[in-house]
Amino acid sequence: MELQSNHSAPVLTDSAPLSKSRLGGYRGLMSYSPPGAAFSPLSVPWRKTGVFDDVRTIGWLDAMISSSPTHKKFTKEINHELSSPDPEAAYRAWLLKYPSALASFEQIASFAKGKKIALFLDYDGTLSPIVENPENAVMSEDMRFAVKEVAKYFPTAIISGRSRDKVHEFVGLTELYYAGSHGMDIMGPVRQSVPDRNCIQSTDKQGNEVNLFQPAREFLPMIDEVFSSLVRITKDIKGATVENNKFCVSVHYRNVDQDNWKSVWECVQDVIKKYPRLRLTHGRKVLEIRPTIDWDKGKALEFLLESLGLSNCDDVLPIYVGDDRTDEDAFKVLRERNCGYGIFVSKSPKESNAYFSLRDPAEVMEFLKSLVTWKKSSAFML
Ligand SMILES: O=P(O)(O)OC[C@H]1O[C@H](O[C@H]2O[C@H](CO)[C@@H](O)[C@H](O)[C@H]2O)[C@H](O)[C@@H](O)[C@@H]1O
Q1: CB-count exposure of residue 79 (10 Å: 0-12, 13-18, 19+)
Q2: How far is the C-alpha of 267 from the C-alpha of 264, rounded, in Å?
Q3: Phi and psi at residue 188, in whole multiples of 5°?
Q4: How far apart are CA 60 and CA 144, in angstroms?
Q5: How far is CA 130 from CA 82, 137, 140, 285, in A?
Q6: In sequence order, what DSSP letters do the residues of 99-123 get, joined into one string?
Q7: Helix, strand, coil shares of the chain as percentages rounded to 5?
Q8: Which residues are identified as catalytic?
C-alpha cells in the first residue's frame, strides 16, 4: 500500500497485487499447496516504501486532521453535484455508488446461491462503535449473539488492527478465526505439516492444535522497545495514549487538543527515525507504527481464504465488512479477484474499494442477522 501524492487527498494503492506464485510462499496454514512447491525463505517480501510513507508524503497535519482525508473531498464533490450542502442528501447520493448491503440483500443472496459464504469482519467501528477510549470499545451482547449465530452457518474471521489477544478478549467467541495486528498475527487451523518459518504450531485457549502465522515475529523486541519509548516520550501530552498491538503500535490522538497534534507527530517521528525497518501509517485519529513487511489485511484475507480451503471463487463468496482505511486493502483484493464483496461501514460519503455500504455497527448487526435468516430459510426450502 502506498500513498500517491498527485491528489489533494491520499489515494491508497497496493504496490504489487498478489499473484498465485507469490501465494505459494504462504504455505504454512494452507491445504492446497502443490506438493514439492519450493518454499521461499523470504515468504513475506519487504515493502519498497520508506519509513514515513503515508504521512510525510502528503503532509502530516492533513493526514491527522482527518483520519479519512478522502472524506471531505468526496463530500464536497457530491454536494457540488447535488448543489446541496445537506449531508443526508450527500449520503443518499453516495449510496448510488455504494448501495446499502441491507437494501441490496436480495442481490447478494442471489449471487451467493450455490456458493459458500466466508465472512471477514473488522472490529473497531464495525462490530463496536468508535469510542473515545480504545479500552472501552466493547461489543454489545446483541452483536456478540449475532456474530455467534452467523458463525454457525458461515466460516467467520475477525481481522483487526488490535493485538489478536485483545480482539479475542473483546469478541469473546471461540468459534471464529482471529487475525490481529492488521493481519500480522493469524491463528488458523492446522492444515499440513510443511514447515514455514513464519508459522508455528501452537494450542489455543481450549487446547486445540492451531497454526500461528506471524510474518513479523522478528520485530517483536523492536516493537516493544518502540512502545516503551513512545509511552515515555508522549507522557506529557494530555490525552495521548499508546497501545501495544503486539506487531504494531498505535498512538492515539483522539483525545488530544488539536493544537498539540503536531507534538504527537513530532514524538512519533523522533522515535521511529531510529528504526528504518518500521513505517508510519494512520487510521481513525491514530498513528500506527508497523514493520515494513509487505503484509496487510488484504493479504491476511487471502491467506485465510487459502488456509481454510476457500480460495475457489467458483464456489465461495467472501464478504469483508470494515470501516477503516486499513480495510481498503481487503476490499481491493476482492475487487481485483472479482470475487466477493467488500462492505464499507460509514456514516458519511468516502471513496472506497468496497461494493456495498452499511451505515454503522447497528446496520452491520442487521446484515449479519439477515444472513442467518436467509441461510435458515434456504435450508428449509431444500
Ligand atoms: O482494525 P480495527 O479492528 O478497526 O482496529 C483499528 C484500530 O482500532 C482502535 O482504534 C480505533 O477505535 C478506538 C475505539 O473506538 C478509537 O478510540 C480510536 O480513535 C480508533 O482509532 C484500536 O485502539 C487501534 O489499536 C486499532 O489499530
Answers
A1: middle
A2: 5
A3: -140, 180
A4: 37
A5: 29, 7, 13, 11
A6: -BTTTTHHHHHHHHTTSEEEEEE--
A7: 40, 20, 40
A8: 122
Distance CA 71, CA 86 (A): 15
Q: Which amino acid is at 353?
A: N
State which H helix or E strand residue 282 sits in: strand 278-283
CB distance 252 to ligand 1 below 6 Å:
yes
Q: When comparing pLDDT for 72 and 241, which is higher?
A: 241
| ipTM (interface predicted TM) | 0.99
Give distance in angstroms: CA of 109 to centre of ligand 1. Answer: 31
Q: Supply φ then ψ for residue 124, to 5 degrees.
A: -65, 130
- List, edge to edge, every strand of the sheet that includes 177-180: 199-203, 209-213, 185-189, 177-180, 156-159, 116-121, 316-322, 341-345, 356-358
DSSP 3-state assignment of 156?
Answer: strand
146 three-class SS? helix
- Work out the angle at residue 370's Cα, subtended by the Cα atoms of residues 368 and 374, and round it to the nearest 5 degrees: 125
Cell numbers describing residue 35:
506438493
Cα of 162 to ligand 1 centre, how many Å? 7
- The answer, yes or no, to whether any atom of ligand 1 lies below 6 A from the CB of 122, is yes
Give tens-digit pLDDT for 171-208: 999 999 999 999 999 998 776 555 677 888 888 878 88
